[in-house]
UniProtKB/TrEMBL annotation:
Location in the cell: Membrane
Keyword Coiled coil set for record: no
Keyword terms of this UniProt record: Membrane, Transmembrane, Transmembrane helix
Gene Ontology terms for molecular function: prenyltransferase activity
Organism from which the protein derives: Alkalicoccus halolimnae
Transmembrane helix in keyword set: yes
Pfam families, alphabetized: UbiA
Membrane-protein topology: Multi-pass membrane protein
Transmembrane regions: 12-39, 45-69, 107-125, 131-149, 161-179, 185-203, 223-252, 258-276, 288-306
Superkingdom of source: Bacteria
UniProt-recorded name of the protein: Prenyltransferase
Amino acid sequence: MTEQAHSLLKTCWTLMRAIAVVSSSLAAVVSTTLPLFFYPFLSTGYLVVLLFLLTIGAFTIHGILTHIFNDYADYKSGTDAYSPALLSGGSRVIQKGMISLHRMKQLGFGISFVLLLIAAVSALLGRHEPALLLVVGVWAAASYSLSPLRLSYRPFLGEWLSLFPSIFFLGLAAPWIALGELPVWGFQNALVNALFCVAWVMVHHIPDLEADRKAVPVKRTSVVWFADTFGMYYARFPALLYFLMMALTAFWFAPERIWAAGGVLAASAFAVVLVLKMDVTDPEQVSAYEKLLLLAAMATALWIGIFV
């Protein structure tokens, strides 16, 4: 392997922030792939290959592409320079000199072009499911961070127009592709995992609140908007709102999936207690609680994937 290729692989691995991807994107994939193993007409080999391909896609889009655009935008606005850089504050690949800002942008657009080309070919071959999934993934990565939209810099828009659809559609992918239709449990699991992801991302934004205020333009996340509008204590409210929404989903499928519903309610209660207990002015404590939420997200995804 050449030194240049080794350097690129190291940069991509650092960019990926694997823990976050595993606890959100991979969890969403596994949560809706596991139930498919109970379908006798789907071979284990086919499902393993499908799981592998969706995992590659998740790490490519959510782990690399999304973080390329996010690091690029946040470096330019200056928010990463002020971040406490615990779990938040970007991958620091630009700050460490691992890649230049220009090269980062080139890499992001190059990956986007390849993914959209694959989507176009898939559509021409009649494989509309993967085509749509790829388009949604690229849209989410670009719209979340890049101008002119830069939705992560606007309260509520970033999570609902970029983050949520990206994780939700990823969760729908396995049953949609394997069955050619979307079973109710697929919608339910995808919805729970997407809401959990959005909620912990709101916690993820709390340590960067002051850094986001100093950005040019200001990165007015939902967390910043609540803190500016109602006071610092209310920086936790976006996370609380989305965890409560997650809890409400349990009542939708409780009649037929009582064990799954119980797990969702227990996870929601655990998360709400953590968010209410946290000191939003203490970045180290918030980051420690965020790690617990990541573990809870993975546990919830597995639980509802087993109890269908």
